[in-house]
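Re: export button greyed out
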Amino acid sequence: MKMDSNKVETIFQSRVVETDNLSRALEKIAETSDFNGLYILTDTNVLREVIPYFDDFLNKYNPEIIVMNAGEENKSLQTLAEIWERLSDSEATRRSIMINIGGGVVTDLGGFAAATFKRGIRFFNVPTTVLGAVDAAVGGKTGIDFNGFKNEIGAFAPAEKVIISSQPLASLPYSQIISGYAEIVKTALISSAEFYTELIRDCPVNDNAKLREAMTKAVRVKERVTEEDPKESGLRKILNLGHTAGHAFETLMIEKGTPIAHGDAVAHGLLVTLILSHTLRGLDSKEIYRYADGILKPLYKRIAVSCKDYDRLEQLMLHDKKNITAGEIRFVLLDGIGSPVINIPVPSEELRAALDIYCDTLGL
Amino acid sequence: MKMDSNKVETIFQSRVVETDNLSRALEKIAETSDFNGLYILTDTNVLREVIPYFDDFLNKYNPEIIVMNAGEENKSLQTLAEIWERLSDSEATRRSIMINIGGGVVTDLGGFAAATFKRGIRFFNVPTTVLGAVDAAVGGKTGIDFNGFKNEIGAFAPAEKVIISSQPLASLPYSQIISGYAEIVKTALISSAEFYTELIRDCPVNDNAKLREAMTKAVRVKERVTEEDPKESGLRKILNLGHTAGHAFETLMIEKGTPIAHGDAVAHGLLVTLILSHTLRGLDSKEIYRYADGILKPLYKRIAVSCKDYDRLEQLMLHDKKNITAGEIRFVLLDGIGSPVINIPVPSEELRAALDIYCDTLGL
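Workaround output, generated via the alternate export path:
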């Protein structure tokens, strides 16, 4: 697949809106929408840190604000039922609209509540974290955790618009920005050499306006991919780049008692992926070092991995939930930057060789 | 809209399967489907009366059978959560399939459970009542009652196949068949003069094989209409023929302490509709008498309506939940048999004149 993220808008009407004035962006949506009843879902953290940016909008439109407790443990049937009840008690109609302001938990849960209230009302997402923007706000995957399983119950339902702003970034811890940034880098790697080169050159993690631009580009790429493959039957798998090894690192570190953030694990997984792309698909070896020196080493901590962990890592990759082929590990790899290929079998010896190069590259 | 129900299959691939051997029909689905985990949802009544027809299938495929309590009061979040839990506990996957066998409650609830488990698994509907077949099994409206409101929570999700069989008809009370039959007559009126003439000529209510044929035709018409307008933005309104007056009769009779079945109320509403179609749209007046003498009088009891009830009936029609124009009553009417027109304003004096003719025609 070859895709130039800069040209995405000319191909289809993007749902992604970029703004530096959240209040104004929401006012514009309200002005141009025909609705009857306006609801905001947010969580306790966002209420404190981010909702102040919406003052003008709140004063003008006086929406009903539903506040859920922050945290993945509240992405539950109980919270969902409470939101349904609030909508129902306040006589929300099929023409009401809902605006989800928060991280992935809020947009996943709020999207599902909206998708199922009266068989579906329109909703808008305002992600307030980097990961939430790139990973959860577009693509239509909504849902709740249930019976001990993540996203066990849910629906495919796209937000009508997704609003990306630099304003919420100001209150995010640096570590959270860096972790979310790994998903932006991944998106650049699967979509565009130009976008990827910009990231390496500009390293936008310390400049919120530049970071917002990079987020918007990444979200539009994800949007494009998920519109072409809404139910994850093929193309969408490219979004899994770096995640087969990433998930294995993530679980290994939990098992070692030194857990790392999801995004940090993906950042390490991407290095393994670039190495395998070189050995199995002929990707230029300089891409390995460009990534290691330009992104991984400057931004992400090393992790305690050695050759003693290879058995366990291989086992974890074999049992990755996205791995549908029993007894075989398959990766998304790159034929070139912006040219991903899916379902590439990775034999054990190739994986171990790649992990050796990974350890050497990072001096582990 | 002009639509010949006999030609529906040539236009698009129908999901509706007609059979006299339910077990064989399900075996065929199982043989030709690629799945992993097979679930049946049914209710306590159906389990006793209808499930015996599935013996061969059950012995061969050994599906997990989930039995809910019968009755609208169980179309609830609690039942839904129990079904989700059963699916989750037994490790149903995205490739599992669910077969809903029952009336509208089972197909609505089971459809919603399937549409939301792991963001949607495939499901099949086997309606076991006439009304359930014509009204609920196709069209993709799934859901539960919540917070005191019918279908407050739900999703649009179509069954992969809908299986219509004469077998369950054997255990239905005659009154229930007649009531459901009104929806078949309605469907003929909006779709095809030929289909309608067949119904008047054959009166299939006493012959289960003929009734199954009529049901299948009606379900295919509904399927066609709902595929063209899945989210009820226009065309789908034609399915409301007879219901504006029908709902008013239904509520009036509840208020009088002599409730009647929904279908019986629709049968009476259809007469009012045919009268208004004559006075406002020039439908041949002989259609009024053809319906009254060929269908309404032979099959449905008269109801105690007189000119003293006109005020209340008008009030009820003004507040019908499907009436979106404040202060004005709008009907679906017929320009001819098979040619419905939607959103026709009915002034008070025309409505009262039509109710006069209605009472005269039935000798009320």
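The CA atoms of residues 76 and 133 of chain B lie 21 Å apart. The button fix ships in the next patch.
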